[in-house]
Structures are given as C-alpha cells and as structure tokens.
C-alpha cells in the first residue's frame, strides 16, 4: 500500500501549488515553530513542507522572514533533533539562499555544526563558506571537545570540504588532521562498546560488561581494531576508526603527496632513500616522522591488516561482502601510498602476489583483481617484476565468465580505458585479448558504447585490424552466442548430455553442444586473437542464430556497430600500409552481404563510403587487385545484392585506373576492365522479348556509362565501341519495358548523361583532359570537387557542340 501510494503522493507534491496556498501553509508552520512546545504537529508540517520544496525541479521561494525563522529554530539550544534535521533539510533545498545568516564560527555542538555546515556547503561552492567550515572543523578536532560532544559528526563534513575545495587547507591544518587520523586508525579500543542501559527492573550490570571485538570468522581479535572488526556495540574511537578509513583515500590523494609539503620536509630532503626506508619500517621510530609520513605508515599497516583479515571465512554473507569491499579499498590505498613513497613498493608487492594467488580462482573476488592489476601496472617496472601472468588471468578469465555482470563490465572497461596507453606500451596481452573485451560490449551495448569509442583506437594496430573488422560485423552474432552460452551453463546436468553427431540440432541450445557447430561457437567465443582462423567458417552459425535476431539485446548491440565501424576506419586509415588497405578492400567487398540477418542492421552498415576512402588512400590497389576486382565486377548478382558497393567500385575504377595514379597501368589492363564493365552494362540494359523487366537503379547505369567513357578516353581505340553503345541508350529508355519501370525523371537522367558523354567523345583530346587532367590542374579545387567539375565539363562541351563555332566559354 505504501509503495502504491508513494507515486501519487510525489505527483501531488510536484503539482504546481498556488502561491496563496503555499503562503498560508508556511504561515501555519511558522506559528507552530514559534509556539512554546514544538511537538509532533510541527514535525508533520515540516515534513510536508520539505516534500513540497524538494519534489520539484523548479525552485521554490519562501518568505524571507520564514527562512530566518528556520535558521533561528535550528540553532535553539533545546530544539528537538528531528526538528533541527528537518529545518536544515528545507534550508538545503532552498540553496543558494540570500537570507542566510548562519555561521559556524562559535558553534560548539558538533551535531548542530554538522547541520549548519551542510547548509553552508550547499550554497554553490563559495570558497569563503567552504574555508570557514573547514577551519572550524579543524579547530574543534585540534582542541578538546566539550563534554558529551563527538568528533563522529565532524568527519563527514570534513570529507565534503575536501571534495569541494581540496587546496583550502594549510600545512598546519593538514598536520592536525593527519595526527588525529593516525590515532583513530591505529589506536582504537579492541573492547566492544557498552550498550545504553535500558533501566528495566531485570537489568543486570554484569551482563552489560563489554567483551572483546571479534574477527569475521568469530575468533577473538588479537590485533588492532579495523573496519572488519565486529562487535554488538562500538565505542566512540571505533566509530572514528571506521570513518577515518572511509575518507583515508581521499585524504591521501589530496594531502599525502609532496604537493603539500610539511614544515620539516626541507630538513630531510637530502637524506638517502634507503635510510628513509629503514625509518619508515621501524615502528619504534615512527613518532619521529612528520605527520604526513606517519599517517602513511599507519595507513600501510591498516591496509595490510585488512588484507590479512580478508583471508578469514566470514560467518555472515554481509560480512563477506564487506570483506571484498574493504579489500578493494585497501589495495587502492596501498597503490596511492607506494606512488607517494616508493620505499613501500617491495613490501606491498609480495603481499599482493600472495593475495592474487589466493583470490584469482574465486570469481566473487573479480572486482578486487582490478586494483591489484592497477598496482602492478604502476609499480612492477620499478621493482623489475614480471606481472604478465596477472594481466593474462585478468583479461582471459574474467570477461569470459562475468561478461553479464553490468557493474563489473563498466569497471573493467573503465580500467582498460584509464590504462590503455600504459598497456599498449608495456604488454601485448591487452591487444591480444580484444575478443574477450568485446564480450562486455556485446552484452552491455548501450551503457558501454561511449567507453568503447575511447578504447577502440588503443586496440587497433596492423596485427589486429583485420580480425577486429570481422568481429565488429559479427558483434550482434556474438551477443546471440553469449546468450546461448549463458543459457547452456544453467541447464541441469541431465540436459547437457552429448549430442548425436548424425542428428541435426533442432535448437540453438542443442547446436551449442553439437560437434558440427561446436568449433564455430568456440571461435566466436574465443578469449584471444586468432588471426590464422578464417571467419568464413561462421556463415552456418549466422544462419543458425537467426532465431535470436529479434532479441532486444541483439538489436541494441546491432545499433552500436555503425558508430564503431566509422571509428574503426577513421583510426585504421591513419596507420594502414598498402598491404592492409588491399586486404580491407577485399574484405569490404566480401563481407558486405555476409551479415547477421537483421534487416535494419544490413541497412545501417554502409561500407561503400569506406571503400572510396581506401581507394583514395591507395589508388594503385586498382592495378594490384585487378584480378579480384574483375571477378567482383563481372557478376550481375553483385549489382543486385551489393548495389551501392558495386556502384562505388565502378566509380573508383573510372577515377583511378590511370597511369596518372599508377605507372604500372597498361592499355591491356584498361581494356580488360572496359570489357568486363561493357558486358555488365549490356547485361542490364539489353531488351529481349522474354527478358525480365529491368529493375536496376538509374545511378548504376549512369556510373557504368561514365566509367566506360573514362576508360575509352585513356585507350582511344575503345571510343567507337562506347560511342555506339551510348547511341543506343535513346532506344533503351523509350522502350515500353523501361518506361513501365523507370519514371520520366530517371529516364531523362540516363538519356542526358549518355548524350553528354557522346558529345565529349567527339573531341577525344578534350575528353582525356576532362577525365584525366594533368597533375597541376587536378590539384585545383575545381577538379577535386567531383560533384561539380564533371557535370560542368559535360555541359560546357555539349554547349560547344550545339552552339556552333561562334560560341566561346566565358
């Protein structure tokens, strides 16, 4: 009932409340707050008012006198705590507040100071307020608190101050807090706290005597207290211990390095590093260290103790989760400490190697492997330690087993992105493991696409480009395969029996274990790069997985592929050599119709523009791949199934099949391409009595005519053949079969282009100049802009021929 009522309550509060009604309600609340006894009715009204000002994206304005009243009530000595909390919450929602008169300068009550500070810090990161709060907090921590006051309320405020303005603290102030944190972290009591007496008749003073804190496995703690020490009740210093650990990482990052130097740092700057190492490792002399370095030492000891405690078997599931969270934090803090003082590296390396060996086989500790790998990335080179085994386990085991864990997927890819440059410089395992990394993307496409856009350039090089190209095109297929794998692992053992090789599998689940498809699944789900394998083996698997093509997860994955393909080509063209470009051109021609059966996916994956980019980068590929290109161009099926790709390839032949681009281009080669394209144009424009009605796009016909004309201008023996062909196009476009299919505009486009090309061929030298201009002319903007130069040249020549000798172009 409460869950059902909550949305309607929020909706009613979000609704626009008239100013008059809000004013009357505020007046009622003000009267209750000014009464002699602020009771339950006032609390109820404050809760409603807080909901009104909070449950909207638009700012609410309250009367200035009422805002002042809220501040006055907040600071009343005997004001009930619940009323104080609600007043502070309303004032925070009204921030930034012009009527603010609060100050933390003279406040002694730590709870009240925490509430006032939360209001001041909500005013829009004003440095004056942030600095005043920070100074007041440090001053109270430095002195002795009044009776009944607790530092527990101050540390969360200090943590917020650090987040807002980390550099407002002076060296003196940071030393004060560092000294306090040493005491809180290292010297908390190991006895449990005393529970508050109930005052009942049967209360027994002996039963309330505190016992020692315990470890997560129930053993009595014999070492110092940490956040993993358990008890029914905690003492004040134990609470401060836990709070200090929660803000330790932030404190060390802000004030633990050399940026905020201590007063004594200059006196010891010339001391030998090995001497300092001995000092830092000798607990008896730790009190001689400056506060910053002493905190670093105690933080190191604390984290080492947490690592030791994480080895215990927790009795409760919640305690086991706490162990893992503390382990991640401890390793991260150790990494920070070692960055700030390299003398800790060697001691930390040995303990983390032992830790890695212990937890690497347990997938529940997978998140903890990331900070361990981060540590070795940062420090193994300095310590001359080979850490490839750690990286290999991380990249091969974790993505393959936990690709379906969304939070781990994000953290893993973020870890890779943050360290991509470091990985590419130090280890080949990162790039070799890209098939595994793509499993995260295949399963979690929408939330990870922006991270992969940043990561993909670091995975690409000459050795991985071809395989990554295939994998990008097969990414939706990979999503479907992962779905099958996940469902297969959850099947009962009785259903996992081996399949009969002679019987064709009826479902994808059966195919996953069938010998005929097993090797295909293994290749698609591989954990490392396998450039020697042929992706063509996946054709039957794509057809098999067609039943999952409409799955929402598969469709979402397919939507990300065009973006990644565009990025792929923009990156690869920066480093690709001639051999790689030739390989990519052939793959583009081959894979354009070998895609997963999702109609929208096939429409979105447009490779024709990328084909032109590759041809422009390396025009000589037309000669180098002439055999393969002639085979592609000689198939009518490619016009039908790969129309855009075929058209662009024909255009590239006409543009780059010239001695201007490659000295190896011969008349014989030009003739071979001419004959192949002439046969295709004849095939799609011939009119036989029993022939089917032509259904090819006019653009295919006009590009074929133009390319044939270009080739004829470079081998002028071909001019009569192409002229004869072009002269027959009028009869083609006027035939009943063509007029029934093509609209008048399309027929006119074909006829005009044929006429213009015929006119141009009547002046062979002009045709050669237009289609193959000299280098100095070809470099001008006019000739580079193929959308303008060729049509203009054709129109100009047509006017020359039609206008007579008296016409001269401007």
TrEMBL record:
Domain AP-5 complex subunit zeta-1 N-terminal TPR: 4-281
Ranges that cross the membrane: none
Pfam families: SPG48 (PF14764), TPR_AP5Z1 (PF25153), TPR_AP5Z1_C (PF25154)
GO CC annotations on file: AP-5 adaptor complex
InterPro entries associated with the record: AP5Z1, AP5Z1_ARM, TPR_AP5Z1_C, TPR_AP5Z1_N
Segments forming domain AP-5 complex subunit zeta-1 C-terminal TPR: 451-800
Residues in AP-5 complex subunit zeta-1 ARM repeats domain copies: 322-439
First and last residue of the signal peptide: none
Name of the molecule in the record: Adaptor related protein complex 5 subunit zeta 1
Organism: Apteryx owenii
Taxonomic lineage from the root: Eukaryota, Metazoa, Chordata, Craniata, Vertebrata
């Amino acid at each position: 009932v409460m869950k059902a009522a909550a949305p309607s309550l929020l909706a009613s509060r979000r609704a626009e409340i008239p100013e008059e009604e809000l004013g009357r309600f505020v007046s009622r609340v003000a009267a209750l707050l000014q009464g002699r006894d602020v009771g339950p009715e006032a609390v109820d009204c404050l809760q409603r008012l807080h909901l009104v000002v909070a449950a909207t994206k638009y700012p609410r304005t309250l009367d200035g006198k009422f805002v002042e009243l809220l501040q006055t009530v907040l600071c009343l000595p005997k004001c009930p705590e619940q009323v104080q909390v609600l007043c502070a919450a309303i004032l925070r929602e009204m921030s930034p507040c012009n009527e603010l008169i609060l100050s933390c300068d003279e406040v002694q009550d730590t709870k009240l100071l925490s509430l006032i500070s939360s209001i001041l810090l909500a005013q829009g990161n004003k440095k004056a307020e942030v600095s005043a709060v920070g100074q007041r907090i440090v001053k109270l921590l430095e002195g002795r608190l009044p009776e009944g006051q607790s530092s527990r309320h101050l540390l969360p405020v200090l943590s917020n101050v650090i987040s807002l303005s980390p550099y407002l603290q002076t060296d003196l102030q940071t030393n004060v807090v560092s000294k306090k944190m040493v005491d809180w972290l290292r010297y908390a009591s190991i006895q449990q706290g005393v529970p508050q007496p109930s005052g009942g008749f049967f209360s027994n003073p002996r039963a309330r005597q505190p016992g020692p804190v315990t470890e997560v496995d129930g053993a009595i703690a014999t070492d110092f207290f940490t956040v993993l020490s358990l008890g029914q009740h905690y003492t004040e210093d134990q609470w401060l211990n836990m709070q200090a650990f929660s803000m330790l990482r932030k404190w060390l990052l802000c004030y633990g390095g050399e940026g905020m130097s201590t007063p004594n740092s200059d006196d010891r700057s010339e001391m030998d590093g090995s001497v300092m190492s001995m000092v830092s490792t000798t607990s008896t002399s730790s009190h001689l260290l400056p506060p910053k370095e002493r905190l670093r030492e105690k933080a190191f000891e604390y984290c080492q103790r947490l690592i030791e405690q994480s080895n215990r078997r927790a009795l409760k599931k919640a305690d086991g989760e706490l162990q893992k969270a503390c382990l991640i934090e401890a390793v991260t803090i150790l990494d920070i400490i070692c960055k700030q003082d390299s003398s800790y590296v060697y001691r930390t390396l040995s303990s983390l190697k032992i830790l890695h060996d212990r937890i690497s086989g347990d997938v529940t500790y997978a998140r903890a492997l990331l900070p361990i790998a981060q540590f070795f990335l940062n420090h193994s080179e300095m310590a001359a330690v080979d850490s490839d085994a750690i990286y290999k386990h991380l990249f091969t085991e974790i993505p393959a087993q936990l690709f379906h864990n969304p939070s781990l997927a994000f953290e893993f890819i973020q870890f890779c992105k943050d360290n991509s440059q470091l990985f590419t410089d130090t280890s080949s395992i990162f790039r070799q493991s890209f098939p595994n990394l793509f499993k995260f993307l295949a399963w979690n496409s929408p939330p990870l696409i922006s991270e992969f856009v940043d990561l993909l350039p670091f995975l690409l090089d000459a050795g991985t480009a071809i395989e990554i190209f295939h994998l990008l095109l097969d990414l939706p297929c990979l999503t479907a395969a992962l779905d099958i794998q996940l469902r297969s692992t959850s099947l009962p053992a009785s259903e996992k029996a081996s399949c009969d090789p002679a019987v064709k599998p009826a479902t994808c689940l059966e195919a996953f274990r069938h010998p005929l498809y097993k090797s295909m699944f293994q290749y698609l789900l591989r954990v490392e790069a396998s450039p020697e394998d042929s992706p063509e083996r996946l054709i039957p698997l794509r057809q098999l997985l067609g039943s999952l093509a409409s799955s929402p997860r598969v469709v979402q994955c397919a939507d990300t592929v065009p973006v990644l393909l565009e990025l792929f080509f923009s990156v690869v063209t920066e480093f690709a050599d001639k051999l790689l470009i030739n390989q990519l051109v052939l793959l583009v021609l081959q894979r354009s119709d070998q895609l997963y059966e999702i109609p929208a996916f096939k429409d979105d994956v447009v490779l024709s523009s990328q084909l032109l980019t590759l041809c422009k980068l390396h025009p000589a590929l037309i000669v180098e791949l002439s055999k393969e290109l002639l085979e592609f161009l000689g198939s009518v099926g490619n016009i039908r199934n790969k129309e855009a790709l075929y058209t662009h390839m024909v255009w590239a032949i006409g543009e780059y099949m010239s001695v201007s681009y490659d000295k190896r281009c011969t008349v014989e080669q030009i003739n071979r391409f001419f004959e192949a394209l002439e046969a295709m144009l004849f095939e799609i424009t011939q009119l036989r009595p029993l022939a089917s009605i032509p259904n090819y796009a006019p653009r295919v016909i006009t590009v074929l005519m133009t390319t044939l004309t270009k080739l004829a201008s470079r081998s002028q023996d071909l001019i009569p053949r192409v002229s004869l062909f072009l002269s027959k196009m009028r009869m083609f476009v006027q035939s009943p079969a063509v007029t029934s299919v093509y609209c008048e505009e399309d027929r006119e486009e074909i006829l005009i282009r044929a006429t213009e090309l015929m006119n141009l061929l009547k002046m062979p030298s002009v045709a050669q100049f237009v289609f193959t201009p000299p280098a100095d002319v070809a470099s001008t903007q006019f000739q580079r802009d193929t959308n303008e130069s060729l049509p203009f040249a054709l129109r100009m020549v047509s006017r020359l021929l039609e206008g007579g000798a008296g016409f001269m172009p401007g």
